[in-house]
Amino acid sequence: MSVGASVGANPGAIQVDGEVLDVQRTGKYFVLSVTAPGITERTRPGQFVTVGMGGEESSMILRRSFAIQRVQARGMYGGTLEFVVSPVGKGTQWLTKLRRHDPLNLVGPLGKPFTLPTKPVTCVLVGGGYGSAPLIMLAESLRDRGCRVDTIIGASTEDKLYGGLELKRVSTSLTLATEDGTAGMRGWVTDALIDTLDSSKVDVVYACGPMPMLASVAAECTTRKIFSQCSVEESMACGIGVCMTCVLPVIGEDGMTRMLRSCVEGPVFRGDRVRWADVGTIPDGTWGGEGLRS
Amino acid sequence: MTRTIISTGKASPGSTFDLRTHLGSLELHSPVLTASGCAAAGRELDNYFDITAIGGIVTKSIMLAPRSGRATPRMAETPSGMLNSIGLQGPGVESFLETDLAWLQQRGARTIVSIAGGTADEFGKVAAKLRVAGGFDAIEVNISCPNVEDRGQVFACRADTAAQIIQTVRRNSDNKIPIFAKLSPDVTDIVEIAASVSQAGATGVSVINTLLGMVIDTETMRPALAGVTGGLSGPAIRPIAVRCIWQIRSALPDLPIIGMGGVRTGHDALEMILAGANAISVGTSIFNDPAAPMRIQKELEQELRSRGFESLTQAISFAHREESEAVTETAAGESIDHGEQNWDFISE
After folding, report:
1. Number of folded domains in chain B?
2. Please, which pLDDT band fits residue B325 given cuts at 50, 70 and 90?
3. CB–CB of B66 and A287 under 8 A?
4. Mind listing the pLDDT tens digit for each residue in A140-164?
5. Predicted-complex ipTM score
6. Residue A245 is nearest to which of B60, B74, B91, comparing CB atoms?
7. Most B-contacting residue of A235, A236, A238 (CB-CB within 10 A), to test interface
8. Residues A52, B289: C-beta atoms closer than 8 Å
9. B285 to chain A: which residues are within 8 Å by CB?
10. The domain spanning residue B253 has which CATH number?
């Protein structure tokens, strides 16, 4: 099927009015726990939710997207889920000021999840900044399948690391890396990844974090012919596949580059398929690209 | 204090309200449509509401060949709105017919196909392919997309180029198919353009497309969009849309108008209908609430009922009535029934 044609995106997603249960500060980030009846039951690792901003009359029209870090399908409040917010803009700052029982409109679960191996293989998980959040749910699923899970998380500095405690609990091993050396090894997650890839047999690498990190992770894996799955963070307007904002150049099975939507054809992409160096451009030879220059 | 009413409480709250509207020969059971470019081809939204329950789906503008669209970033949020610079990404008309239109048809949704092109010839070819395929209810001709390389391609900026495109599309379409010209508010006199496309064979007009805007990212101190400029949409532009609808309705009392531009609630939809819109499209608000079209349809019905309207048709252009025709409520609870339509358009 051609791109741009609808591909039955996110058939399981629903829109619900949730309720804030908790807003917890951790380092530079905030973890929001919200009720999300109907969403939690269907969520798989790597999927995300979009959140309406500022109430019905808000001047912030666009929803914000957040990777789901964990779900609890049942419990005192029915289904609840957690996501991590980095309060860098107006919308995310508004979110961190919410209090228990405040309403929150949620749409999810959205996007293609990480694909899980059918056999108990060796996995390396790489997280940059709060990109490590969805790795928590992923690591749990992989461990349930008997996989070895070696996790590497990094950030520029200690208080931008996220999820160390939870990831230590669910991983076989955990390595920390900070650029300034305030926690763990001094350097980048890719330095630690290269060490791991060169010293042991790795079957699959999962990564979530900033684009430059994903580009390096994918490059290291592709050179070594190791399968990698990268969850991208692209700016989105709708999150459900209708606005065509969150596109990036991805090479298809037929060798053709197409501008794919991160929200429905991602956010998880095969590392060897994304044209990382060309993100933010329409590379030469892209399907339909000549139309622009005619 | 006196209050203007037409009649009160005739349709009981439980009964089905008559939301029917007409766009030329096309009758729709509801005036609420999706706006082109904000609903893809309906499939994704069908997850959040029954797309056959609203008036219809206006699909994302389709061109002759596949098109990658512009580089990213393509979007920037603005106060009560957003800028977009998508650049008409799409699969081309053939793939659209095979997959998207076929799906819409099978789903039973009313479909208005939006078409775009770089030249009159391209518009004509897309229309000709649609004519052969059939299976849709109307065409919306996007002659006003601001996200093209050459501003000269914004055909809706001039009456003669706008008319030329509409003529070409009309010539290549089935006579019975309603054709709507989507107009840009970025013009000196939108009425002149509306009159021109009407004469060229358009059944009606869709107003408004986005306005050309720009945002500078103060972190990078560069334009926020890769395409530098983009189309401004959302509630921020609603008063401009209402003004355009009003002006066109005043000058062209019988021209069918699809109103759009920042409709977020049933109240907003009513405002456009009172200004003269025969139908309304919901666009950017879908990004805010994927079920917005359905919600707005329900809210609109409520807004109409609460003002004593017995049908949608009664409310269309109601804001244009003569002052003297305003009816003053005389006593509490006393209703005055003025029957079908007791007012006329102002003639200019």
Report:
1. 1
2. low
3. yes
4. 999 999 999 999 999 999 999 999 9
5. 0.92
6. B74
7. A238
8. yes
9. 61
10. 3.20.20.70
- pLDDT of res. B344: 58
- Which residues on B lie below 8 Å from A88 (Cβ)? none
Query: Would you call B119 an interface residue with chain A, using a CB distance cutoff of 8 Å?
Result: no
Span A14-110 CATH architecture = Beta Barrel (2.40)
- Give, in order, the Cα–Cα distances in Å from B245 to each of A1, A132, B17, B241, B313: 40, 50, 25, 6, 16
- Is B145 designated active site? yes
pLDDT band at B8 (very low <50, low <70, confident <90, very high): very low
B86/A105 Cβ within 8 A: no
For residue A4, list chain B residues with Cβ-Cβ distance below 8 A: 66, 89-91, 95
Partner A contacted by B49 (CB < 8 A): no
Q: How many CB atoms lie within 10 A of CB B348?
A: 8
Spell out the residues 6+ positions from residue B15 whose beta carbon is closer than 8 angstroms to its own. Answer: none
B338 or A206, greater pLDDT: A206
Q: B115 Cβ partners below 8 Å, 6+ apart? A: B61, B62, B63, B93, B123, B126, B127, B130, B139, B140, B141, B142, B169
What does the pLDDT look like over B223-279, one tens digit per residue?
A: 999 999 999 999 999 999 999 999 999 999 999 999 999 999 999 999 999 999 999
Any domain includes B205: yes
Cβ within 8 Å of B, A 242-281: 242-248, 258-259, 264, 279-281
Q: Give the structural domain span for B159.
A: 4-10+19-71+86-212+231-328
Q: Say how far apart CA B305 and CA B299 lie, in whole Å.
A: 10
Give me the residue from B63, B89, B285 closest to A247, CB to CB: B89
Pinpoint the residues of chain A covered by CATH 3.40.50.80. 114-233
CATH 2.40.30.10 domain extents, chain A: 14-110
Q: Using CA atoms in the order A61, A67, A70, A76, what is the torsion angle rounded to 10 degrees?
A: 10
The hierarchical CATH code for the domain A114-233 is 3.40.50.80
Q: Is residue B23 part of a domain?
A: yes
